Amino acid sequence: MAWIYVVWGDDHADIGLYHSYAMAAFTTHGAHRLPVEYPILALLPFALTLLPAPDYGVAFVAAMAALVLATFIVVWRCVRPDRARAFVLYLLLAGPWLLFGRFDLFPALVVLLATIAATANRRLVAYALLATGVLLKLYPLVLLPLFVIDQRRAGEGYASTAAGVALFGAIVAAGVAASALLDPSAVLSPITYAVSRPVEAESLPATVLWLLSGFHSPGDVAHSFNSVNVVSSGAPAVVAAFGLAAVVGLVAVYALQLAGRLSLRAACIAALLVVILCNRVFSAQYMVWVVPLVALEIGISPLWIGVLLLTILEYPTLYSLAGLSDSDTATTFAWAFLLVVALRNVLLVAALTRIAVTDARSFSDR
Prior knowledge:
Layout: H1 2-8, H2 13-26, H3 43-46, H4 56-78, H5 81-94, H6 96-99, H7 105-119, H8 123-136, H9 144-153, H10 158-182, H11 189-195, E1 199-200, H12 204-212, E2 220-224, E3 227-231, H13 235-258, H14 264-278, H15 287-297, H16 302-321, H17 335-364
Antiparallel strand pairs: 1-3, 2-3
Helix pairs in contact: 4-5, 5-15, 7-8, 7-15, 8-10, 9-10, 12-13, 13-14, 14-15, 14-17, 16-17
C-alpha cells in the first residue's frame, strides 16, 4: 500500500505542507515558526519529512508504513482476534492516501492507547496520553469529560480524579508555554485558523446546503485553507445551527455515559462523530480518528465498511475525477461527488444514532 501511494499518490500535497512546517521549525536560524493550524507536538510527525531520503515524501510514507505495520502487530497480539481483524480491515479500507499521506494516525493511536490505559485502570497514563493527543491535534480535548466520567463511575475518589485532570492540564499548559516561547503568534493560531475556515465540500453542512439548493449546487467552488470549500450565502446560518447541534450532541453523549448507558470507548466514538458531523470542516482523513475505536468496541460492521468504501470513493477517486484537486480548475461540484458525500454522511448519522440508541441500551443491560 505504501508503494501504491508513492507511485500514484497526490504529489505529496499534505506531506509538502508538513515538510514546510518542519523546515520552518527545525532548520531556520533565529526565530522558529510553528505550524499555523496544528499544536506544537504535530512537529514530531512532521519531522519525519527531514529523514535522509532522496525525497521527503518517500521518507514520510516509509515511516508511516512502519508505524502501520507495527500497530497491526501490536493490536493482533493484544486484543481479541475478531477485534484485531476489524482493526486491520478498517485501516486497509481507509486506503493509502489517508494512512500514508496524512499524520492523523498519530493522534488517533494516542487516543486509542488512552482508552486502553483507562480501561486497565492506569488513569494517570490515560490522562497523559489524552493530553499528548490534544498537543498533536486539538480534537481529543472534547474527550476529557468522558475520561472524568468514566473514572467517577468506577468509584474512584475525587482526589485521584483531580490528580488526573491536573496532570492533563499541566501537560497541555507545558505545550502552550513552549509554543509561546518559540513562536508567540502560534499560541492561538490553531483555534483562530479553525474558526476562520469556510464550509468544506465533504462536510455534513455542505450536504445540507446541497439539500437546501434543491440538489442543484451547495454553492461556489473555492480553493482555500488547503481544501475545497463551498461559498454560499446560506453557509453562516447552517454553520451556526451545526455549532449549536455540536454543543447539544456532546452534552447528550456526556449525559448518556454519566447515566451508565455508554462505555468509555463507545462514548468516545459518539463524541468524535458529533464533532466530525457538526464541524464545517470534514476531510477524509478524519475517519482515521474514529475507526480504531470502532474496531475495538464494535468489531466488523457492514455499516462501517460502507462508510469507509464511500469515503475512499469520494476521496481521492471522485475528488480527482470531478476536477477538485488544487491543480484543477473545476468551477462547479459534480453531482456524483455530492451524492457519494451525502450518502457517506447519512451513514455516519446512522452510525451515531446506533451508538446513542441501540448500543446505549445494550450496554445498560450488561
